[in-house]
Amino acid sequence: MKNKLILVIACGLILVLVGCSGNVKVNGTVKYSDGSALTVGTVVFGNGTNQYQGDVKDDGTFQIEGLKTGSGIPKGEYKVWLANTTVVEYQMKKNENGDEVADKRLETVHVVQQFNSPETSGLSANVDTSHKTFDFKVERP
């Protein structure tokens, strides 16, 4: 009987600790100043120790779920920046053997470079349970 009581108390304590982890699932949008959505890239939240990221979807929305899917990120102050906002493609041509080879590298840059660094983006977020949705404005190149 005593062992069952200890087991029940231990399980209850674990549930309380997991429920009070303080992690928050973060979401939001990234839009240009004209209101249209950024459709490529990755939003990164960094606090100097860890980085958490979420991909931008076609409608400009993103979700950051933490290191394990659905676990959320710790509450606190974060610098925010964007990654993977330059799309690289290659124009192809046929060589003398008739094989297709890359001819020209084509880059499509979707935001000004300022937003690709935590030091220059000017974006930040204070994450807590009442502040978990963030809408960021960026500029086209």
Structural write-up:
The protein is elongated. Residues 5-20 have low confidence and may be disordered. The chain is mainly beta and 141 residues long. It has one helix and eleven strands; from the N terminus they run H-E-E-E-E-E-E-E-E-E-E-E. Strands 4-3-7-10 form a four-stranded antiparallel sheet, with no helix packed on it. The chain has a three-stranded mixed sheet with strand order 5-2-11, with no helix packed on it. Strand 8 and strand 9 (100-109) form a beta hairpin. It has one domain: Immunoglobulin-like (Sandwich).
Structural topology:
Layout: H1 2-19, E1 23-24, E2 26-32, E3 42-46, E4 51-55, E5 61-64, E6 73-74, E7 76-83, E8 86-94, E9 100-109, E10 123-127, E11 133-138
Parallel strand pairs: 2-11
Antiparallel strand pairs: 1-6, 2-5, 3-4, 3-7, 7-10, 8-9
Mean pLDDT equals: 87
Rg: 22 Å
The residue fraction in helices comes out at 10-25%
* CATH fold name: Immunoglobulin-like
Number of separate structural domains:
1
Shape: elongated
The count of DSSP E runs of length 2 or more, i.e. the number of strands, is 11
Compressed to H and E, one letter per element, the order equals HEEEEEEEEEEE
Tell me the distance between the termini.
Answer: 70 Å
Under CATH, the homologous superfamily reads Immunoglobulins
Sheet having the most strands: 4 strands, antiparallel
Tally of DSSP helical segments: 1
CATH class: Mainly Beta
β-sheet strand percentage: 35-45%
Structural class: mainly beta
Low-confidence sequence ranges: 5-20
